[in-house]
Amino acid sequence: MKKTLLFLLFALLTSGAWGFTYRIEGNVGTPDFTGWLYIQDQTDKEPRTLDSLWVEAGEIRPCELKARKPLVALLHSRDISIQFHPLFIEEGTIHMVEAPMTQRRGAFRGTPLNDEWRQFAHRADSLGRLFDEGRITKSEAFRCLDSLAEPLVREHRDDLLGAYVASTMEELGTDRLVQYVEMLSSRMQSNHIVYETVGPRLVARRTAEGQPFVDFEVEHEGCKYRLSDYVGRGQYVLVDFWASWCGPCREEIPNLIQAWERYHDRGLTVLGIAAWDKPENTLKAIADLHIPYPQILNTQKVATDLYGVTGIPHIILFSPDGTVLRRGLRGSEILKTLAGVFGDGAEI
Q: In DSSP terms, which residues pair with 56 in a beta bridge?
């Protein structure tokens, strides 16, 4: 009896380890293609190959595949010359509908999410063709797209179809895109499909001009350093996101030194934020360039991710209360802006 119970428990555990099985069959629409197609997961930060399919003269050789959980995937050849996206991995038989490259984003049917996505994609594509033909305006096309997408996202707020459709609403503008994300469950809002598209935009909104500063903390050689050690303490703060290996960053340093020399006695703090760099390399560059103002070392991606900085140098001016006053200052703009702040010239 005890052995029987143990066997049943083992069977239950092992049968649930993979979650479900699925099949993919059909024709890829490229009759001269013979080779492997790879199923690549798109729902994690680091895409990974889940499985592969053998294709003979365009026909997929059907086989049983296993997955631990529902996913959104990219199906592609090794050289990416053939690719289909999105492929919703879910239980059942997924049939690929032979289609030219221009129609391959709605190439799967046979399972619930793939069927609904295919229907939505074809209707959205029809709107695009009407606009291309001059039969509707762009605003009309966007309004119709919005009316198609919103009920679908609300109905699928807690699954990958809702998350994927929401993430494709960039054309409707940042405000509407954020509203789509807010329709999703918290679980789907944090999914990589959504964050990859919307995350940088949300960050940009949160740290845009006119917004209060967002603090961060990093550690270097056992000591903790915070942006709030400098920002929001009653002085203007000019913050430079930079790295020792970055040529344009090094070219900007003389402008920052000039700003520091001219205004630090009048209420300006200049602060370097060393990003994506080894501390020892940063320290060497500080010495080589004779930088006189303070630095926060070893922030790596912490500060840049928080402020949506994708390229350096990136220079931000904070007001005495910590409000973001200006972003993206470069070259002569730095001194012109400070002249306006300190009453020496043109207004900012």
A: 59
